[in-house]
Write a structure and sequence with these properties.
This protein is α+β, with helices and mostly antiparallel strands and about 180 residues long. The protein is about 30% helix and about 35% strand. The chain is globular and about 40 Å long.
Length: about 180
Amino acid sequence: MEEYVILVDENDNQIGLMPKLLAHEKALLHRAFSVFVFNDKNELMLQQRALHKYHSPGLWTNTCCSHQREGETNVEAGKRRLKEEMGFSTDLTETTSFIYTAPFDNGLTEHELDHVMVGQYNGEPQINPDEVAGWKWMDLEDVQKDIKANPEVYTAWFKIIFEKFYDHLILESDASNS
C-alpha cells in the first residue's frame, strides 16, 4: 500500500495529499511529527534507524517520527507510530512545531512542518526490526555533547530540534516526570 503525506502551507493548513516518495523528490512542504519519550531519570529514548531505510539509515534520532495520515490528529499519529516502531504506548503531549528543509545525498529532500510531542515511559521497547536497528536511553546533556562531537551519526531533524529547542526539551522532560 502506497503511503501518502499531507501537503500543508506554512500555517499547517492541508492543501493536498501526495505519495510520500514523490513529496520528498519534489521537496514539498508536508506534515510530520517527532516523538520524544523520557524515563523517570529524565533520559531520552533514542532510536537508531534501520539500516535499509531510504534516507538516514543507521543514524540515531528521537524515539520515533513519521507522517500523519489524513484525518488523524498529531497525537493519534504519534501514538500509532510509537506502537508500530517501538512496540509500546504512552500518553503524548504536543509541545511545539517548526518548519525545516534537509536535502539528502540520494536526491530526496525532507521539507516538513514537524510537530514535536513528548511522553513518559520506563520500560524496554519491543522494537520493530523493519524500522529500528537499536535503541538506548541517554541524558539530554550527553546527547547535546555527542551531537557536537559526532554530528554525522544523528538525523538532520534531530540535530535541528536539539539546536532550536534544547531548553524547551529540558523543561518538557522535567514536566513529564513531575
